[in-house]
Amino acid sequence: MEVKEKVIEKILLLIALSSISILTLIALFIFGEGLPFIWKFGPIDFLFGKRWVPSHGEFGIFPMIVGSFWVTVGALLLGIPLGLACAIFLCEWIPPLAAMFLRPAIQLLAAIPSVIYGFWGLMVLVPLVRNYLGGSGLSIFSGSIILGFMILPTIISISEDSLRALPPSYKAGAFALGATHWQTIWRVLVPAARSGIVASIILGMGRAIGETMAMIMILGNAVKLPTSFLDSARTLTTNIGIEMGYASGDHRQALFATGVILFFIIMILNSSAILLSRRRIG
Amino acid sequence: MDRQIQNSKLKIQNLGILVFLLMLSLILGSGGCQRSKAGITVAGSTSVEPFAELLAEEYMIRNPHSHIYVQGGGSTAGIEAVRSHAANIGMSSRSLMGTEKSLYAVTIAKDAIAIIIHPRNPVEDLSLEKVREVFSGRIRNWKEIGGQDHPIILVTREEGSGTREAFQKLVMGEEEISLEALVQDSNGAIRQVVSGDPNAIGYISLGLVNEKVKALRISGVEPNVKNIESGRYHLVRPFLFVFNGEPTGEAKAFLDFVICPEAQELLCKEGLISILSTSSEGKVGSQRKGY
């Protein structure tokens, strides 16, 4: 019995380690390929260069950083109000029968592959934007809308969990003081669940920055610095996704270097989400 | 204390085993890529890939014991693969450049690049200079070149694409394609964007032009097989098979099949230009090197 348990323990340890070692291998590989290039090209030129023309040896990813930033901001503008409203409704008002449909539906939203979002956006949303707002339709605006819906499940489920985790006494106390239901939600419950809600938003941001397939299809991928929400843009991830097939030499390394920058951004976002959700308010 | 040390030792041992296993799988994995003797690998340009697949199928029907594996990846990747012996034949949709010229290249067909716009766009004809000015961003409105008063939406391929390199060389010359251009990563995606946007202009392989887009005449010359063969339509690029040294064995047999009249006819049916019909180019053997 002892031996058997030991064996099982070791096997589980090995499996657990293998998943982490893959992460380590990926990190080592990306940094090994990308960092020398950043060093060679100059970190300032690489991060703040405004021109990306690999065939002329120009590798400035500033337009992509700006593109990622705007698409993410746009997605959050849509995702936060919708997601928070949805979470509050799910927590406080939803009739049990509706919950039976709504919760699985939201989970389904997370399960839809991103290429389907992209395809739908390309076929339905992009022509609408082109016809009613102008431009090519392949724009930050269209991308933000699609991305806003893609991050909804993350925001909803984590916000809802943190609202549910509050002690019932908060609500009872607020009611006892004569607060209405809405006053209780807005003044007591949401502020109390703040850390969890902020963490959900940061995780949603991580998802938004990392999204690639749908964005390749919808953003248009132009490499100039975007100046309006109807401009085409390229994000850090789509830069890698769209050019990796043919890249070689410096160009390929520059794509890995883009990955390094992305790695840092995601690391910062995820660790701040972990830190925030750990902090207990109450 | 002892137990802890033992534990950590065990962990290190386990890690060692793990790393060993990973290495092993890597080595075995890459070993598996080198196919058995009976097969050859053809890798490279995604523009050539569908045609190579077709030819490989035909070839395998005739030679049931051989296996030809066709993979995409891009012209540059294909050429690299041949150089490093990862593939027997590389497919390239552009001429060889720089050090690549030391490889052995055979033109298997020619492909024209068509400048495409939306069918509703009234523009029918542009000179090469106008196309260049449009794609460099100097002409920004359709009314400047005989269309309606709408801004021009440029659509181009991504950096490194063989089609883009051919377009750059044949149309743009020294000029740069505008950075404002939308970038799509395949011929099909460009066709998709152009077919949906009345103000868009792009370029794709002539063989892939369909009724959803309109191919422009260049200085009055319509892009069709006749004009390409007579040399009047200039936006033509070679499709190459690239070898590391003189082809031998199975690779040579496949090449011989690809340049035989029957296979060339097959390619013509698919919209490519046969190397046999261009009389001015002379024999196949004379166009081997120097691309």
Task: Please describe what this structure looks like.
- The complex is a heterodimer of chains A (282) and B (291).
- By secondary structure, chain A is mainly alpha-helical.
- Chain A is built from 13 helices and two strands.
- In chain A, helix 1 crosses helix 13 (250-278) and helix 8 packs antiparallel against helix 9.
- Chain A is globular and about 70 Å long.
- The termini of chain A are far apart.
- Chain B is of the alpha/beta class and 291 residues long.
- Helices cover 37% and strands 20% of the residues of chain B.
- In chain B, the strands form two sheets. In chain B, strands 1, 2, 3, 4, 6, 7, 8, 9 and 11 form a nine-stranded mixed beta sheet that branches.
- In chain B, helix 2 links the parallel strand 1 and strand 2.
- Chain B is globular, with a radius of gyration of 24 Å.
- The N and C termini of chain B lie far apart (71 Å).
- In chain B, 40% of the residues are buried.
- The model of chain B is unreliable at 29-37 and 279-291 (pLDDT under 50).
